[in-house]
Amino acid sequence: MSIERAEFVGDSPLRVEILDGGIVELLYPLVFRSREFDRIFYAPIGFRSDLASVPRLPVVYWLAANRIFKSAVMHDAALNDMSREDAATLFLECMEAEGISEPLRSAAYLAVKLNDQGYQPAPDDVPPIDD
């Protein structure tokens, strides 16, 4: 069975606890059905995010930041099991499902892509290769 429509499951707002340093922790799980990837993505209770999928580029951040929190959390959660490129694509799909206008989606997506350019994980972030 394939997913016909991209959507966040449930209609409740994002519920978080605000921690030190601008970090938030989910109080309820966040679930997204992705048509693009034909799978369900899940951010569990207790998942932490800095809600900074959109870099602090003044105009984009000012326009988008308070409207794309669910998408930002899902992007951060997806980084645990997919490439940065795929997570950025998921971010774009999530924003569309949230009803964000195409110009704002494109600007936020571009900001994420520019922020990800040249990313190199620290040596401690690279998991060992199993033989």
Q: Write down the overall geometry.
A: globular
- Cα-atom Rg, whole angstroms? 15 Å
**In what order do the strands lie side by side in the largest sheet?**
1-4-5
Kindly state the mean pLDDT as a whole number?
80
- State the end-to-end distance: 34 Å
* SS field, number of helical segments: 4
Low-confidence stretches: 117-131
String of helices and strands: EEEEEEHHHH
Major sheet details: 3 strands, antiparallel
Helix residue percentage: 25-40%
- Domain count: 1
Tally of DSSP β-strands: 6
Structural class by SSE content:
alpha+beta
**Strand share of the residues?**
15-25%
Structural topology:
Layout: E1 7-8, E2 16-18, E3 24-26, E4 30-34, E5 39-43, E6 48-49, H1 58-64, H2 69-78, H3 84-97, H4 102-116
Antiparallel strand pairs: 1-4, 2-3, 3-6, 4-5
3D architecture notes:
- It is a single chain.
- The chain is built from 4 helices and 6 strands, in the order ββββββαααα.
- With 131 residues, it is of the alpha+beta class.
- Strand 4 and strand 5 form a beta hairpin.
- Helix 3 runs antiparallel to helix 4.
What key attributes describe this structure?
4 helices; single chain; alpha+beta; 3-stranded antiparallel β-sheet; globular; 35% helix; 131 residues; 6 strands; disordered C terminus
Question: How would you summarize what this structure contains?
Answer:
Helices cover 35% and strands 15% of the residues. With 131 residues, the protein is of the alpha+beta class.
